[in-house]
C-alpha cells in the first residue's frame, strides 16, 4: 500500500503563509530562523499590514531575510538596525517597522543602538534571535554565551574572570521606560511556536497602536555552532539556555509618559 492510498490529498493541509515565498533558505538544518520567519509572515498576513510593514535586517545569519518574506526591507550595518528603523519610522509614521537581529549583532556591537532606541520609546518592533554564539562567522563567543560554554574563541569554555558574565539584554531592555512589551520566547516545539506567534502578534499590534518599543527575544539553537545535531541542540537549549534565559513575559503595558516617569522617580527618592 502506498502513502497516497493512506493519506488522501484533500486531507493535506499546507499552511505556508503567502508572504513566505518558495525560495530555498540558506539556514543550516535545525536552525530556528526559518520557523521565526514563518511566524512573522503569518502575523503580518493576519494583520493585513503587508503593504505597511518594513523590515530592517543587519549583518548576521539573517542578512538575506529579504529573500524569503515578501515585504519591504532595508539593510543595515552590523548592529545599526535600531538606528535605521528609527529613521524609517520617524519619516514614515504610518508604517509598521521592525528589526530582525541576532545576539552577536544586537547584544554586542549594537548594544548602544538598541538601548537608546528602546529608551526613547521608538515605535518599532525588535525581534531578537539569541543562540548564544556568533553563528555566521565561525562560532565565536557572543555576549550571551553561557559560562563554561565552548565556542571557537573559548575552547575551554567561557571563563568568568577572563570573559565576564553572559548578558541578559532582554532584562535590561525591560527596565527602560520607552518599552511597552518585552518578552522571551522559543520555537523548539509546536506549543512554544504558537506562544511565540502570539507574542509577535502582540508586538506588532503595539506598534500599530503607537505604544513604543516592543521587544521579542527568541531563545534559539545553533546546531552548526554548537557542533550538535538538531535534536541534541534542542535538548542542550532546554537544559542549559532556559534556566539562564527563562521563557515568559518580562513587561507588558505601555511606555511611561513624562508624568508617570517623574512620579515614579520622585517616589523612589522619597523612599
Automatic annotation (TrEMBL):
Record-level GO BP terms: cellular respiration; small molecule metabolic process
Sequence ranges assigned to domain Thiamine pyrophosphate enzyme TPP-binding in this UniProt record: 66-218
Key words of the record: Oxidoreductase
Highest rank taxon of the organism: Bacteria
GO MF, any single term: oxidoreductase activity, acting on the aldehyde or oxo group of donors, iron-sulfur protein as acceptor
InterPro entries the record matches: 2-oxoacid:Fd_oxidoreductase, THDP-binding, TPP_enzyme_TPP-bd
Stated name of the protein: 2-oxoglutarate ferredoxin oxidoreductase subunit beta
Lineage: Bacteria, Pseudomonadati, Bacteroidota, Bacteroidia, Marinilabiliales
Amino acid at each position: 500500500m502506498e502513502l497516497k492510498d493512506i493519506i488522501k490529498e484533500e486531507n493535506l493541509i499546507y499552511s505556508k503563509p503567502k508572504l513566505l515565498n518558495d525560495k530555498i533558505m540558506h539556514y543550516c538544518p535545525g536552525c530556528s530562523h526559518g520557523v521565526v520567519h514563518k511566524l512573522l509572515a503569518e502575523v503580518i498576513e493576519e494583520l493585513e499590514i503587508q503593504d505597511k510593514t518594513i523590515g530592517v535586517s543587519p549583518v548576521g545569519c539573517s542578512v538575506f531575510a529579504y529573500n524569503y518574506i515578501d515585504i519591504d526591507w532595508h539593510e543595515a550595518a552590523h548592529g545599526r538596525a535600531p538606528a535605521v528603523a528609527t529613521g524609517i519610522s520617524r519619516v514614515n509614521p504610518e508604517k509598521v517597522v521592525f528589526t530582525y537581529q541576532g545576539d552577536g549583532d544586537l547584544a554586542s556591537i549594537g548594544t548602544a543602538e538598541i538601548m537608546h532606541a528602546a529608551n526613547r520609546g521608538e515605535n518599532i518592533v525588535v525581534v531578537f534571535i539569541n543562540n548564544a554564539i556568533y553563528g555566521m562567522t565561525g562560532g565565536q563567543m557572543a555576549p550571551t554565551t553561557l559560562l563554561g560554554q565552548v565556542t571557537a574563541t573559548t575552547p575551554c569554555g567561557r571563563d568568568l574572570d577572563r570573559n565576564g558574565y553572559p548578558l541578559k539584554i532582554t532584562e535590561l531592555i525591560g527596565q527602560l521606560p520607552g518599552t511597552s512589551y518585552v518578552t522571551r520566547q522559543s520555537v523548539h516545539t509546536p506549543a512554544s511556536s504558537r506562544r511565540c506567534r502570539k507574542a509577535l502578534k502582540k508586538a506588532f499590534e503595539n506598534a500599530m497602536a503607537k505604544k513604543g518599543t516592543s521587544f521579542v527575544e527568541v531563545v534559539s539553537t545553533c546546531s552548526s555552532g554548537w557542533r550538535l545535531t538538531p535534536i541534541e541542540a534542542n535538548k542542550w537549549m532546554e537544559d542549559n539556555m532556559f534556566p539562564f534565559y527563562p521563557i515568559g513575559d518580562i513587561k507588558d503595558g505601555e511606555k511611561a509618559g513624562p508624568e508617570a516617569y517623574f512620579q515614579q522617580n520622585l517616589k523612589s527618592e522619597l523612599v
